[in-house]
């Protein structure tokens, strides 16, 4: 691979840990990924640091509890408890526990850029992250509230914000980037094109 100019392996946040936690008889995903990591180490190839796939996967709660030895209190779910709501305050914590665990095990392989940063690959995070196909993911009430507070601190008055944005809000509480989004059958408010 390196002879062909490939110098970084990207994993797309391969979910090896989901199988590792249960210690099943057959762990082909986890075993295959760990084998690839062993080969990368032997060949001197760096890998993209990985987080989770996707960010709101419900079993990250169990993974974080397994790693810490303590229960992780999660109360907000979506999709019939197969996903954790992006407004759940403990979701970033649970993910960070898993990512730190992975970093301690394989961080010596992670790509480090020139200024010292170590990028971590994460799929489907909170916020309106843009993907190649312009999918925008919903923020949720807590993130929208934090955004309103940021606008309030930055502009101090709604008049100043309106002037900067060319908008006509009567108060900061009216600011809601998701106001015109329509939930799909899964309860997601995804936007598939850039706003005009």
How would you describe this structure to a colleague?
It is a single chain. It is built from six helices and six strands. With 196 residues, the protein is mainly α. Strands 1-2 form a two-stranded parallel sheet. The protein has a two-stranded parallel ribbon with strand order 3-6. The protein is globular and about 60 Å long.
Features:
two-stranded parallel sheet; mainly alpha; about 5% strand
Task: Please sum up the structure shown.
This protein is mainly alpha-helical.
Shape: globular
Summarize the amount of helix as a percent range: 25-40%
Average pLDDT for all residues: 81
List segments where confidence is low: pLDDT < 50 over at least 5 consecutive residues.
126-134
How many discrete domains? 2
Largest sheet, spatial ordering of strands:
1-2
Task: Summarize the SSE layout with pairings.
Blueprint (H helix, E strand, L loop, with lengths): L7 E2 L6 H7 L5 H16 L2 E2 L1 E2 L9 H9 L8 E2 L4 E2 L6 H16 L13 E2 L19 H15 L2 H8 L31
Parallel strand pairs: 1-2, 3-6
Antiparallel strand pairs: 4-5
Helix pairs in contact: 1-2, 3-4, 5-6
